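Aim 2 progress. For Class I SAM-dependent methyltransferase, the working sequence is reproduced below.
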Amino acid sequence: MLIILLIAVGLLLAIIVGLSLKLRQLSWTLNTKLNDIDRAFGQIRKQLGALSTSIESSANETQNAVYLSQLDLTMPVFMGGWSIDTFLGKFLVQHVVESRPKTILELGSGSSTVLIARALEIVGIHDCTHIAVDHEPKYLGISREYARLNGLEDRVTWLECPLRHYDEFDKLWYGGLLDRLEGKKIDLLAIDGPPGPIQRHSRYPALPLLKRFLAEHCTVILDDAGRDEEQEIVQRWGNENPEFKVDLWPNGHGIAMLTR
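Predicted structure tokens for this construct:
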């Protein structure tokens, strides 16, 4: 009888141990599945967030395009891609209308040149010196042709300045430009060149080289401020020139603005 009882207890313990092991395995499997589900939901939330941001950005782009269409250009300019986006286009137009700069210098000609010139024309500013600089005659010519088609060519001073090496920065920058700016006091400096891919921190020399030409109260705008290198440039400018207030906007390609 005792032997039978011991056998029964042994069998019961074996069953309990087996069930315990099976429950542990089921618990581990369940936790794994729950973790997989949680990760999947995390990915879905991330994708929904990105989609929401994309939809909002597209809606803002559309609003900006409608705003810029009110400039009533005879020949519309290209926006996006290698050109400025509608965020910067609207930003520049609003700044011109609100601040009424007397001297504007653009490093890198293009759609922005036409938009700025048209905004100046609409608000009736006829004594503004608007200078557009490009290192490539091809692109300067294209910008100039768009301006001509919109009746704005004569409102802009077009400067072709091939890139040359500046030893103090070990970088290529606009050759001969500084000599052509003597006597100028720049209220608005818009920087969209030289191109970033040609060298690291390609646009850094702009502020240290042009600072002596800037008006006491001025605005410096840098395009493509969403890129890591441009953000490093802005941080360096801010550290070296604490008198400037620095603002950043992530919209579109990213915009950095330094004001004094």
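The CA atoms of residues 45 and 51 lie 10 Å apart. This observation will guide construct design in the next reporting period.
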